[in-house]
Design brief:
This protein is mainly alpha-helical. It has 2 domains: 91 residues, Zinc/RING finger domain, C3HC4 (zinc finger) (Herpes Virus-1); 134 residues, no CATH class. The protein is built from 7 helices and 3 strands; from the N terminus they run ββαβαααααα. β1 and β2 form a beta hairpin. About 6% of the residues have low confidence. Keywords: Membrane, Metal-binding, Transmembrane, Transmembrane helix, Zinc, Zinc-finger. InterPro entries: RNF170, Znf_RING, Znf_RING/FYVE/PHD, Znf_RING_CS. One of its GO terms (molecular function) is zinc ion binding. This is RING-type domain-containing protein.
């Protein structure tokens, strides 16, 4: 559902939402209320969320609000929201800011993809699909490479344990100790590779999410920034 939660109220006027808008911090406000907060704030700076105090760099009106743009008072508020987005929509450039915006952007993107009544631009859909496929390919290649390293190491370890039969009969105790030591070393090596591989996979997924979120943010900015 593209709108605030049911039975919720605007945290600024404490009344039912009038032209609800969602900020990049995921909180909902009346369009006119959040613009008043901006008007009474510092000049040439985006306003901060009254709830979480995060800097608001993007305002997204609900679909119901956008469909009422033929009304004069609604059109004026939507026009001011577009102005706000043009002024501050490009400020989400830092890595920390992008990480904070990820839940908001990915949730809206998933809703847009799954809702048949909403449609993303074909170019955005294609780039998101390519980004996901590329990350999947890199993920599978990385897993294959780590498995190849482990298999090679196990093969070398097995060949290094091959000794003449007569020596095995005479050095049972020494071989057992060596085998135990090498087994522990193998598990330790495998564990280290597993941890490194997991971190590597998480980094790949994280970069893919950042890229997809940046694509979707650009689409929102184009749609609600008047550009």
């Amino acid at each position: 559902m593209d709108g605030p939660p049911a039975n919720d109220v605007c945290s600024i006027c404490h009344a039912s939402f009038h032209l609800p808008c969602q900020a990049n911090c995921s909180h909902w406000f009346c369009g006119s209320c959040i613009l008043q907060v901006w008007d009474h704030g510092a000049a040439l700076r985006p306003c901060s969320c009254p709830l979480c105090r995060r800097e608001i760099t993007l305002l997204v009106p609900s679909e119901a609000s956008s469909r009422r743009r033929h009304m004069a008072d609604v059109a004026d508020i939507l026009q001011r929201i577009q102005t706000y987005n043009r002024l501050y929509g490009e400020r989400s450039n830092g890595l920390f800011q992008r990480m904070q915006d990820l839940p908001f952007l990915l949730k809206r993107l998933l809703r847009d993809i799954l809702d048949p009544q909403r449609s993303l631009p074909l170019v955005i859909r294609a780039r998101v699909y390519l980004a996901v496929k590329l990350s999947s390919f890199v993920f599978n290649y990385d897993s294959f490479r780590r498995q190849f390293v482990l298999d090679s190491y196990a093969s070398q370890l097995t060949s290094s344990l091959k000794v003449p039969f007569c020596l095995i009969c005479s050095c049972v105790t020494a071989c057992c100790l060596c085998l135990f030591s090498l087994t522990v070393a193998t598990f330790a090596f495998t564990g280290v590779l597993g941890i490194i591989g997991l971190l590597d996979d998480l980094i790949i997924v994280f970069i893919c999410c950042l890229y997809v979120a940046a694509l979707y943010r650009a689409s929102l900015l184009s749609r609600h920034g008047g550009s």
